[in-house]
Amino acid sequence: MFSLDRWDEIFDTIRKNKLRTFLTGLSVASGIFILVILLGVGEGMRNGIAREFEQDAANLILVYPGMTTKEYKGLNPGRRIQLKNGDYNQILLKYGDKLDHSASVYNVRNGVVTYGKESGSYSIEGTFPAYQELENVSLTSGRFLNINDLDNNEKNVVLGHRVKLDLFKDQEAVGKLIEISGINFKVVGVYSDPGGERDEARLIIPITTAQKAFGGANNIQRLYLTLTPEDNFDEAVAASAGFTQALKDLLKSRHVVAPDDDSAIRVNNYLDNAKRFYTLMDMIRLFFWGVGICTIIAGVVGVSNIMLIIVKERTREIGIRKALGAQPLSIIGMILHESIFVTAIAGFAGLIMGLILLEFAGPAIETQYIYNPTVNFTVAINTVFILIIAGAIAGFFPAWRAASIKPIIALRDE
Description:
Number of domains: 2
Helix content: 55-70%
Shape: elongated
Radius of gyration: 34 Å
Distance between the termini: 33 Å
């Protein structure tokens, strides 16, 4: 029940001990402030990791060849594995019903690209239409490759945004002819990539054209695969892990590689990597919560000590109250009221300062692994409950001590 007299007592105590109250509140405010900042940084790290995985399909499985390190079936180690069109076709034949998107890539490095007086050296990727979804690229003009480009070995090309700026500046690129190592190609589209300029400094052409025009025969450098979606994340990770192992076994068998030689056929499972990263992030966030809570506990201990001092100073007053008939619960309520009030005000101040700092400074923080650090509404509500609980804990033991004082002993106190 609201009591104006009790509030007058609280404010009178605060006025008489301004510095002591300020320092006590500062310890609580700093604890909440540190907790909010740590949680914001943790969320920013999570956002940064998520943005890294957005650069390609989230459930991408990337396959690329390496070199054997073990002798197997009479073949010496040190053989360089070369993937072929047949490998890709066999995967489609055996696992096509499990795949959502797939593409093989034949890469031409440092191809000389010329338009008018402008020229440069770029990477040329010969691939399939599904490469657009697999690399998560978006078109800024024109179109992407289609099946007709592959079937007819069309000399069509899709430019990365960086290449378009280098060669065409502000001009329209779609419909123009460029030279790639002396061969004319028609620009049919321009794309942007969330990976940034490095991934936009490429040209994409049909794989059939790349293999014939640049001496690729039936060689490929990489395979991009994604599985059909599952109902939940854990099921998707399990399905992806099982498929990855089956894929390794198939390719090792085709290229006569020892089953335990993991250097010959390398598979990068993005979904498995994502699970490891997010598990790590959850552990980091738990650590941040632990640090923040420990900091708040230090502040709560400070509040509790101050309340013990206040009880000691008001021992005679408490004795008089009890002698006049004050019940123990009213004494406990008086001390708890003051403790919760000081803790809550200081805690809210720290909470607001932390949120303001994240609101204004957060958007400006953009590193590789920290992006837009924020604290959501649920976390803010949780900190409010922490404040209330902390204030109650800080005041309970001093309040219990005050309620336990016998009036006769309290009245003798000097």
